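Q: What would this chain look like folded?
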Amino acid sequence: MRAWIFVASVLLLGGCNMGGAEQDQSAQGKQEAPASANQTAGDPLAAHDPAMGEKAAEDIPDSEPRPMMQAQVVLDRLGFTPGVVDGKEGLSTRNAVSGFQEANGLQVTGKFDEPTKQKLAQWSNIPATRVVTIPQEFAAGPFNKLPEDETEQAKLETMSYETLDEKLAERFHTTVDTLKLLNPGGMPAGATGAPPASPSASPSTSASPTV
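A: My prediction, written as C-alpha cells:
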C-alpha cells in the first residue's frame, strides 16, 4: 500500500502552534516550515521535507495533483491541525485555515481564498504524498479483533490495532479509506506493474500523506 503522508503530522496532531507560523522571516521574506514531529533520526517512516526552493525527490510520482491534501499537510506542519489529512475540506480543515489566517494577519474566512493560497505557496514544494517502505517491525503487529462490548474491552491488557491499515492510518494522520484511495489495488497510485503476490506476507511500499 502506498502510504501518502499528509502533513497530516501523522496522525495525532497537536494543537495550533502559533509560534511556528509567526517565526522570524529570512532576508528573502520567506518562512521555514517547522520540522514535523515525525522528522526524527530514529523513525524510518519520518518525512524529510525539501529545503526552501528545492524540489522533493519522488521515487514514484503521484498519479494526480492533490492540492487540498497538500494544503492540509502544510497546515499540519505549521501546527494548525486539519484533523485528518484526507483531501477533504471539512470543519477541522476550515478551523485550521482560520487559525493560520489569524496568525498571519489575513482576513479570517476559514476558506482557501487567494491571499491564503499566496501565503501558503512558499511551502508548495512540500508534496501532498510520498511512498514509504513499511519496516518489518512496524508491520509485525500484533493485530487483534477488538470486542465491541466496552466491558470486554476494559478487561484487555492493551488495545491493539485490528489491522495494519488501521495502524498506518493513525501513523499518517489519515483514514483507511484515504490510504486505499492512494493505493488502488494495493499499489501506490502512479506505480506500474502488478501488485505483490502476497501483500500481507512481508512489508511493502505504500503511498501516504507526507506527514
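Residues 75 and 206 are 23 Å apart (CA to CA).
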